[in-house]
Design goal:
Elements (H helix, E strand, L loop, with lengths): L5 H11 L5 E6 L2 E5 H11 L4 E2 L11 E6 L3 H10 L4 E6 L12 E7 L17 E7 L3 E8 L5 E7 L3 H12 L3 E4 L1 H4 L2 H10 L3 E4 L6 H12 L1 H5 L7 H10 L1 H5 L28 E6 L6 E6 L2 H12 L8
């Protein structure tokens, strides 16, 4: 086997910590991918697969492909749309000043449910990260829209808990779901998420520990909102806490914004503050039927409209 260069050793060490992501490894003006990531990216992004080891035996050659860093958003958007995770590894020091190998580190992991870049999003709909807890008695689901900051949580118990859970999943259509062990072991639920909702599914491993979830909820949402969760059904806290864990947001948010990650799951404006959108409201209909037609060029309004309609109160005009 060929000797591994210091740069390749650095790559392999970082890749070992991000096995479930396609690693974008910064080299100069390019993000490079190697080995299995290169083969996958070349297939999904129509990139040319090459190698730097042309003089070596075939078994010693390292496949690679790359993209210009300044145009990476479009490539990332295509991968995210197909359900992949992308880990961004940047140079953390100036190469001109570095002594020896340039230091590199992961600055962000982008997943379907935590993406906030406009290039990767549909302005007309929300982008929900979902936490799902399921056991023999209870079911809980939490939906956090990283683009608007809105978070919804609900819990059910009894024989019809799965039916209610499916209804909520259909209503929000999450882009990514983190599942408890009981939920992940339910094959029909996983199949529904992947095949019917085109949702990226991940087993939550240790994210559904009650004390850790409660601590995360207090940190992200505050004591008042934590106190409003049902005390007789822990599924709500477990589902919400799985999406609010500090470690999850730490790797999903750019390093420059990590100091404000606790603000991400909370509404971006006080609930008592009126929101003004540039729009037209057209009223059509007879004395007994009323039709509403909204026209707006605000992406935020289009994302919030489904939630607003749930709270719309129609007063009889007769």
């Amino acid at each position: 086997m060929a000797e591994i260069t210091p740069m390749m050793k650095q790559y392999l060490e970082i890749k070992e910590q991000n096995k479930d992501s396609i690693l974008f490894f910064r080299l100069g003006d390019f993000y490079e991918m190697f080995n299995e990531d290169a083969q996958l990216a070349s297939r999904e992004l129509d990139l040319t697969l090459t190698t730097r080891d042309r003089g070596k035996a075939a078994e010693d050659q390292t496949p690679m492909c790359g993209i210009p860093y300044h145009s990476s958003d479009a490539y990332i958007a295509r991968l995210i749309a197909k359900g992949y995770k992308v880990a961004i590894c940047e140079q953390t020091e100036d190469p001109a000043l570095a002594k020896g190998l340039v230091k590199r580190d992961i600055i962000r992991v982008i997943t379907p449910g935590t993406v906030i870049d406009s290039a990767c999003l549909d302005d007309r709909r929300g982008n929900f990260l979902c936490g799902i807890f399921l056991d023999g008695q209870n079911a809980g689901a939490a939906f956090c829209d990283m683009t608007t900051g809105h978070t919804h949580v609900t819990a059910f118990s009894g024989d019809d808990r799965l039916e209610h859970l499916y209804n909520e999943l259909s209503r929000f259509s999450p882009a990514e779901a983190v599942l408890s062990a009981g939920a992940y072991d339910n094959g029909e639920l996983v199949e529904y998420l992947r095949d019917k909702l085109s949702c990226a599914v991940e087993r939550g491993e240790n994210r559904f520990e009650l004390k850790a979830c409660e601590k995360a909820i207090r940190a992200q949402f505050g004591e008042e909102r934590f106190a409003s969760l049902p005390r007789n059904n822990p599924a709500a806290s477990l589902a919400l806490g799985a999406t609010a864990t500090e470690t999850y947001f730490r790797v999903s948010v750019p390093a420059a914004r990590r100091e404000v990650t606790r603000d991400l799951p909370t509404p971006p404006f006080p609930l008592t503050t009126p929101i003004i959108f540039p729009m037209r409201l057209i009223l059509l209909g007879s004395s007994r039927k009323l039709f509403l037609s909204f026209e707006s060029h605000s992406p935020l309004f289009e994302q919030l409209l489904p939630s607003l309609l749930h709270s719309l109160i129609i007063i009889s005009l007769i």
